[in-house]
Design goal:
The chain is α+β, with helices and mostly antiparallel strands. The protein has one domain: Phage tail protein-like (STM4215-like, 2-Layer Sandwich). The protein is 23% helix and 38% strand. The chain contains three helices and seven strands, in the order H-E-H-E-E-E-H-E-E-E. Strands 1, 2, 3, 4, 5, 6 and 7 form a seven-stranded mixed beta sheet that branches. The longest helix has 19 residues. The chain is elongated.
Length: 172
């Protein structure tokens, strides 16, 4: 398999999985947990200037460092790369932020019903819904929740940081 733009496919695969899980749990509306407002999802990091103006429940999904490809431990021509995933959660109050962060963390760690830490990469090149690539697998290798201090905006902010390990066939 030679799949161009593999980082973009990884980003979209993870975003779609998080969006689908939040929809299934009711966070996107119309009947939102705890009677709060539905969340908005951003596919990028929120800038500090944007944080000041936020008034609702927001989830921002973005990626950080990506390692070089390396030969997978099991060999067979497989390659592995690791990417950092960040999920910013800004909520209308602290309990909502904690509940939302807990739901996303449980999903990423495989603790939520029907969730799994390992899933196939999807190819979005010609199909907007993505085509699963059974020989390219994504594994969530760790999830940590943090509460950044943001005295300027006084927002109820949680950040999830996860490691994603992508294993896929190298060039033949």
């Amino acid at each position: 398999m030679t799949l161009r733009h593999i980082s973009r496919h990884l980003q979209r695969t993870v975003e779609d999985r998080i969006r689908a899980e939040l929809q299934a749990l009711g966070w996107l509306g119309p009947s939102v947990p705890f009677g709060t407002t539905p969340i908005s999802i951003y596919s990028r990091r929120l800038r500090d200037s944007e944080l000041v103006a936020l008034t609702g429940n927001i989830v921002g999904i973005f990626f950080g460092r990506e390692s070089d490809d390396s030969a997978a431990e099991l060999g067979g021509g497989m390659l592995t790369t690791t990417t950092d995933l960040f999920v910013d959660i800004v909520a209308v109050n602290d309990p909502i932020g904690l509940a939302l962060a807990s739901d996303v963390k449980d999903f990423l760690t495989g603790r939520a019903p029907g969730a799994t830490r390992m899933f196939p990469l999807r190819d979005y090149t010609s199909d907007p819904g993505g085509v699963p690539q059974p020989d390219a697998m994504v594994e969530v290798v760790g999830v940590e929740r943090q509460r950044p201090e943001n005295q300027e905006t006084r927002l109820f902010w949680q950040v999830l940081i996860a490691g994603l390990e992508l294993t896929y066939p190298g060039e033949a």
